[in-house]
Design brief:
Four copies of one chain form a homotetramer.
Chain A lengths: L3 E2 L4 E5 L6 E7 L9 H11 L16 E5 L1 E2 L2 E2 L4 E6 L21 H8 L15 H22 L5 E9 L2 E2 L9 H5 L8 H17 L5 E8 L13 H10 L4 E6 L10 H4 L3 E2 L7 E2 L7 E2 L2 E2 L4 E7 L9 E4 L5 E4 L10 H23 L6
Antiparallel strand pairs in A: 1-2, 2-3, 3-7, 4-7, 5-6, 8-9, 8-10, 10-16, 11-16, 12-13, 14-15, 17-18
Helix pairs in contact in A: 1-3, 1-8, 3-8, 6-8
Chain lengths: 367, 367, 367, 367
C-alpha cells in the first residue's frame, strides 16, 4: 500500500532497482493535453546518476516509454502509463550484502516488515523508484502550463535548487533566480561561489569515503490563488508529505519555518497592502505563500532537509541478519551527495501537488 | 474536500467555531474496543482554552457526546461519531472584522477561494476545528493500548511537550520524561526552569499585545517495528502531513531533522548493534525511529514548529476587503502562545497516524 | 469501514436506530450553493415511516439539523454535517430478540463479524441509516439544479417510482411521468390502477403477517452528456453499487437489463440519428442512457429489485445464538412493503452519483 | 479517473487496444505470497479471443510480464506490476470508422467527453482492457488460496459459467458443478445439451452477421463468514459495481435477485437451522450468501447479464461525426457472443472483491 499519491490527479508508481523496470500510472489527467515526451525525458535525465563527476557514476539510460493514454501526441483521458526499463539488474553486485544490515538503509526494516529485503540496489527504497515520480511530475508541469495558457495567466514557475551542502550555504535571490542559473552548475546551486565550495566538499567527501547532507530550497512564482483544501489537505500539509516521501529527507519547512519559533506575532504577521490590480498582497512573506492552508498568490516558499547518503565506502559497525556484530566496508563507488539529483525530484513532487490541487479547486468556480 | 484523514483508520471532521457544533466520524475502528469516554473528555480538556492564565480566557466547556458506534461501552464496528456543541456562537463579537482582512489569518484566502470568510471566530481555520481530531486521537490511543495489551507488549507511549517558546529552549531527557512531568506545569514544558522562563515570556507578550512562536517535541517509546508504507505513505511522510495540517505549524523534522544538513554519513548513520532479545538495535537514533519509511523499533522522534499566533492586540497595517489600506487593532483578550494547547493536538495526530499504520500493517503478518 | 460514498462529492454517514442520532457529513460541496433546508426536510419526510396506513406506523419526527458548513443560507466550502436525533431509542422493545437470530436479518452476520448485533431496531443495517443518505441526496439535487441553472440548461430530473409490488406491475410512460403523479398515491406508483391493486396486496400481506417484494424504476431526464469514468467508475457501475448498498435490494439493471439476454445485436443496438441541435441522438434507448460507461444524453433508465421485508409477524423457524432450533413470532406491527419508502432512497443515491460524476467531469472541459 | 478498484487490495489498470500495451499495478498485496505465473497466464489465456471457432479469431498472444513486486517467486510487499504488450496495433484497420459513430459503442460518448475516440479497436472501452483485471484477479485467487491454506480451511471456490445465451438457458447443479465441467466446452456452459444449443445459436448469429446476449452465473463455495462492510461497501454492492464495470454488462442480481419481486417474506426468508459444527446455517439461500451486506458462510450466488456484442457485420443506421445520417457495414469478422470470454473476467472481478474484503476484515479479529 501507499504507492498512490494525489486525490484528483493521482499517480501510482511501481518498480524497483532490480526486475523489469520502474514506472508510473497517472489517473485523472484531463483529456487533450499535448504531451511533450522530450520534456519528460529531460526531467528524467536531470535526476539520472552519472551526469557529472559529482554523482554516482553508473550510466543509467532511463529512456521512458509511454505505454498508454496518449494518442496523436495528446492525452486521451485514459490512464497515462510510463515505463523505464532496468538496463542492468546486476543483483550479483549486492550479494555480499545479503548477510548483514547496512546502517541507516531500509534493509532491516524491510526485512522485519515484509520478510525480505529486495536487497539488490535498495529495492523499492532506492532512488530509482523516483523515476516514476519525475516522469509524472513533468506531465504535471505540462498540465499547469497548459491551464495557465488557457486562462491567459503566467504559468506557475517551480524552481528548486541546492541551498546548502553540509556547512556551505548558498546566497540566492529568490525573486530573480532562474532555471538557467540552477542548471548552470552540476551542483544545481545557482550561487557560483557556494557551488564551487560545495563541489570541493563533495569531492573531498568522496575521497574520504564519506557523504554529506544538505538542503533544497523551492520557490514557486506565479502561484494561483486559492489552492489547498482545509483542513487535512492544506497545501503545505500535502507538500510536507510529498517531500518527506522522498528518500533521505529529514525535514520540511514552509515560509519562516523553524525560524518562526523565535519570532513574535508583530514581526511574523504579513501585513496586507493594497495590490495594483485590486487584489491585496502582503508586504512580507513569512507565510510562505500559504495562509489557512490555501495559497494566497504570493510565491510559495519551502525548504527540504536531506540527510547524508547512507551508503559510504568507509568501514562501519553493523550486525548480521543473525544479530551478530560485524563490520561493513562497502565496495565500489558511492554517491557522496544526493542533493543535485534531489532537485528534479523536489520539482516533480511540487508539480504533482499543484496539479492535484488545481483540479480539486475547480468546483469552487462554478457557482 | 480534504476533511478526511487516514486510510484504514479514517477520520472525517466537521464543524467550525460558529454553527451547531464540531465533531468527527471515525470509520474503520475495530469492533469490541472498550471506549473510555472519560479519557476522551480528558484529552479534550487538555486542548481547551481557559485552562490557565497562560491561554485564551474564554470558558469553553467542550463536553463530548458519542452519537453512534458504541453500545454497552464498546465499539460496534459502525462509525463512531462524536459531537461537541458550540456553547456560544457570539458571531457578533467578530462583526467589526468583516470589512477587513486580518494579517496572516485565513480571511483573505478563504474569501478568495470560497467567496466567503466564515469569519466568526476563524471558521474552519479556527483551532476549535481540532476538537474532532483530539477526540478521535484519544480513541486511537485506546486502540493502540488495547492492541498492545492483546499481544502482551507495552503500549506505544506518545509524549509531546513544549520544547521551545521563542528564545527559551527546554532541556529534557527523552528517555525518561513522563506525562506527569509534562502536565505538571501549564506550559506543558517538563523542564521547570524553562517552564518558568516561558511563563514570563508569555505573560510579557500578553502585556505587549504580542504573541510568541515555539516548538513541540514528540517521542514515542515502545514503538512497534514495521509501521509505514513505502513509498508515499512512509511513516514520517504521514506524520509530516499530520503535523502540517494543524493550524499555525510551519515545519516538521524527524530524527536529526535539519541538523542532518551539516552532518556526514559517518556520523549520521546509526550503527546496528546486537540486541538482547535477538533483534538488532541501533547505537544512535539519528533516523528518529524510521528507516526507509518504516519504524525500526527505536523511539520515534520528531519536532514541529509553530508560528506566533496571528491574533495580536497591538495595531497592525492591513487592507479592507475593497483593497484599501487601513489598520486593525484587535479588541478583547488574545492567546499569546498556542504551544501548551498544541501539545494534545500533536499527541492526537500522532495517535491517528500510528493507529492507521497499525491496521494497514496487519496484512503482512498473514503468510 | 465502508461508510463513505463518492470520490469528489463524498458523503460519510453515521448512526444507528439506537443511540444519539443518525447523520451525514458531506465533503466536497462547492461553496456558495444556496441550501434549501425545507427541501431536505421534505425528502426526509418522504422516507419516513408512518406516512400512511401502508407503512410502518411508528411516528418518527426526523427533524434535521445542519451542524456545520452553511452560513447565511449558503454552503461555505467546509463539510456540511447534518444530524437527526433518535427520538425514542426503546431498545427494550427488542429485548426478546437478543437470544435468537432473525431469519434474513443482519443479526447473525453482524454477530459473527463484529461480535455484537446492535440488535436494537436493526442497528446500522436498519432503514434508519438511510436518513443521512436522503439528506445528502437532497443537497446533491440542489447542486445539480444550481449547476444547470448556471449553464442555462434544464436540470436533471430524477424520477423514481414503485414499478412493481409482488405480481402487480405498473404501466407508466417514462417520457411523461411526473413527480406529482408519483406522490399522488401513498404507494408512489403513478399508475392508479396498479396503485390500487398494490394497496390491496399490501393490506392483505399485513393481515397475513407477511411481506412483499417489489421493484423501483428510475428515469433521469435532461441528463448531461459525458458523466461516468471508465473503467471501474462507469456511471452504471457506480449506480449499481449505490442501489445494492440500500437495505433489502437484490438486483440492478440498466437500460435493457436482463432482457438484453434474449436480444440480438441487431435489435439491441441503438441506431444513431441526427439530432436537431447538431448533436446525434439514438432512435431507441436499450443502452439506458449510458454507453461505454458514460452518459450519452439520453434519459438514464434503470430498475432496482427489493426483496420482501425480512420482518414478518407470522411464526418462523430459526435458531438461538447457541445454535438450538427455536421459533420466532415477531411482536408488534411490521412494514409489509418497503417499496414506497424506498423511492426517496433511490432518488437520493441517484443524485449522489450524478453530483459526484458532475464534479469529476469538470477537468475535461479545461483544455 | 476511475481506473483504480479496491480499497485495501487495490488495482490500477492502464492501457488500450492500441499503444504499447495493457497492464495493471496491484497495491496492497501481502508480502511472501508465492506467485504462480503459469496460473496468471492460464487465466489470461481463458479470456483471450481466438480460442475456438466461437470467439473472435484474431490471435492475441497476451504473454504477461511481471515488471515488479516479485523476487525469488514471492511477493515483496511492493506494487506488483504486470504488462501485456500489444502485438499488433493495426489501427489502420479502423480508419474507415473514424468518420462515424458505431451504434451502442463508446465512440460517441468518448468523443463528447474527452474530445477523442481512441477509436482503434475500441480504446479503453475495448475488452482488451480487461487483461489487467484478469491478471490481477489471478493473483487475488492465489492470495485467497494461500490465506485459506494458512488457516487450515478450504479455499473459496469461485465458479462462473455461461448460464444463458439468448433463449438457451442451462440447467446446472450449483452444488456440484466443477471447473472441469465448465472448461470442457468452448461455450463455458457446463450443461452439455445447452452448450450444444448455444454453439448452434452462436454459429447461426455469425452467419447472420448478428450477435447474442446472455448471462453468466457465479457461485462461490467455501465462503468465509464475515466479509463485507456496511453500509456502502456491502459485499453485494461491491460485486455489483465490479460486474457492471465489465464491458457489455446490463444487470446484476444476487441470490433471489429479480425473482424476489414476486416473493413474500414467508417464502423468501432463509430460516436458520442448527449447524453441525455449532455455527447456524440456513435452510434456503435466497439471500445469496449475504445478509446485511456481510457474507453468512452460505455459498455466494449471483448472476450478471450481458448485452449482445455491439459489433455486428450486418448493415446499421448511424450518423457521421457531423451529425449526418449514414449507414455502417462493419468489415471483417466479429465475435457474435462475448459470454464464453466473459467468464474469466467475472471470475477475476469476484476474486478481487473477495481479496479486498478479506484484508479489510482483518481488523475485527484483533480484540
Amino acid at each position: 500500500m501507499g504507492n498512490t499519491f494525489g486525490h484528483t490527479f493521482a499517480i501510482t508508481t511501481f518498480g524497483e532497482s532490480h526486475g523489469g523496470g520502474v514506472g508510473v500510472v497517472i489517473d485523472g489527467l484531463p483529456a487533450r493535453l499535448n504531451i511533450d515526451l522530450d520534456h519528460i525525458q529531460t526531467e528524467l535525465d536531470r535526476r539520472r546518476p552519472g551526469q557529472s563527476r559529482l554523482t554516482t557514476q553508473r550510466d543509467e539510460k532511463d529512456l521512458v516509454e509511454i505505454l498508454s493514454g496518449v494518442e496523436g501526441g495528446a492525452s486521451t483521458g485514459a490512464p497515462l502509463a510510463m515505463l523505464v526499463r532496468n538496463a542492468d539488474a546486476r543483483s550479483g553486485a549486492y550479494d555480499h550484502l545479503r548477510e548483514l544490515y547496512r546502517p541507516s538503509h531500509a534493509d532491516f526494516t524491510y526485512d522485519k516488515k515484509y520478510g525480505n529485503r529486495t536487497i539488490a540496489g535498495g529495492g523499492r527504497s532506492s532512488a530509482r523508484e523516483t523515476i516514476g515520480r519525475v516522469a509524472a511530475g513533468a506531465v504535471g508541469m505540462q498540465l499547469l502550463d497548459a491551464l495557465a495558457a488557457r486562462s491567459g495567466s503566467a504559468p506557475p514557475e517551480i524552481l528548486s535548487w541546492v541551498d546548502q551542502v553540509h556547512s556551505t550555504a548558498a546566497s540566492v535571490d529568490e525573486d530573480t533566480v532562474s532555471s538557467l542559473q540552477i542548471e548552470a552548475d552540476p551542483t544545481r546551486c545557482p550561487d557560483p561561489d557556494a557551488a564551487a565550495a560545495m563541489t570541493s566538499a563533495i569531492e573531498q567527501a568522496r575521497r574520504d569515503g564519506d557523504s554529506l547532507g544538505g538542503a533544497v530550497r523551492t520557490v514557486v512564482r506565479n502561484m494561483p490563488l486559492g489552492l489547498g483544501e482545509p483542513v487535512f489537505d492544506r497545501l503545505e500539509a500535502d507538500l510536507a508529505k510529498a517531500m518527506l516521501s522522498l528518500p533521505a529527507t529529514k525535514g520540511f519547512e514552509v515560509g519562516s519555518g523553524f525560524d518562526a519559533i523565535t519570532m513574535t506575532g508583530r514581526t511574523h504577521n504579513d501585513p496586507f497592502v493594497p495590490g495594483a490590480d485590486g487584489v491585496p498582497t502582503t508586504r512580507s512573506n513569512h507565510s510562505g505563500g500559504v495562509q489557512g492552508g490555501i495559497s494566497n498568490g504570493a510565491p510559495l516558499r519551502f525548504r527540504t532537509a536531506f540527510k547524508p547518503t547512507a551508503t559510504i565506502s568507509s568501514e562501519q559497525d553493523t550486525v548480521t541478519v543473525d544479530n551478530t556484530a560485524t563490520t561493513l566496508a562497502a565496495k565500489g563507488r558511492h554517491d557522496p551527495c544526493v542533493l543535485p539529483r534531489a532537485v528534479p525530484m523536489v520539482d516533480a513532487m511540487t508539480a504533482l501537488v499543484l496539479a492535484d490541487h488545481t483540479l480539486r479547486q475547480l468546483r469552487h468556480n462554478l457557482l
